[in-house]
Amino acid sequence: MMLEREREREREREREERERERETSSGFSSSTTAEEAIDGSALTAVVTEATSGIGRETARVLALRRVHVVIGARDAYSGSSVSDQLLKETPEAKIDVLELDLSSMASVRRFAADFNSLHLPLNILMSFSFNTSPTRQHEEHILLAQVAPRSI
């Protein structure tokens, strides 16, 4: 019985030692959370439809993780309002608001030109447009085609 407890303690010490080795080699351990591990400070994300719902929440979490967030909003006032709220929650966040109406090709092209003028990479494109018409999908592909090549 005594020998069993001693073996168990030895196994526990070995596990702790392996855990310390892993933690020091990568900086993370098995107890590290995604919030601790994800650093988006070198990333830029475009989030469409970010003035409410899942788009707003996505923009909030990306900003919290230090991702530079570009909000594509149909209404500049609504986009600026969301930006102000997010900056109150996360003062160090980097957030830009650009007008974007995915139902207008002229707006898509203007957004792409405005985004490109920021000289930022496009690492993440989160489109929360729930209109799945072929025309709307085509406009989103044009947005990506006009912004992404310069970002790669």
- Largest sheet, spatial ordering of strands: 3-2-1-4
Provide the structure class.
alpha/beta
What is the assigned CATH homologous superfamily of the largest domain? NAD(P)-binding Rossmann-like Domain
CATH architecture of the largest domain: 3-Layer(aba) Sandwich
- Could you say what the CATH topology of the largest domain is called? Rossmann fold
Number of beta strands = 4
Question: Count of helices?
Answer: 6
Overall average residue pLDDT: 81
Region (Disordered): 1-37
InterPro entries: NAD(P)-bd_dom_sf, SDR_fam, TIC32
Biased composition (Basic and acidic residues): 1-24
Biased composition (Polar residues): 25-34
Verbal overview:
With 152 residues, the protein is an alpha/beta fold. The chain folds into 2 domains: 37 residues; 112 residues, NAD(P)-binding Rossmann-like Domain (Rossmann fold, 3-Layer(aba) Sandwich), CATH 3.40.50.720. Helices cover 57% and strands 12% of the residues. It is built from 6 helices and 4 strands. A 4-stranded parallel β-sheet has the order 3-2-1-4, with helices on both faces. Strand 2, helix 4 and strand 3 form a beta-alpha-beta unit. Helix 5 runs parallel beside helix 6. The longest helix has 25 residues. It is elongated, with a radius of gyration of 22 Å.
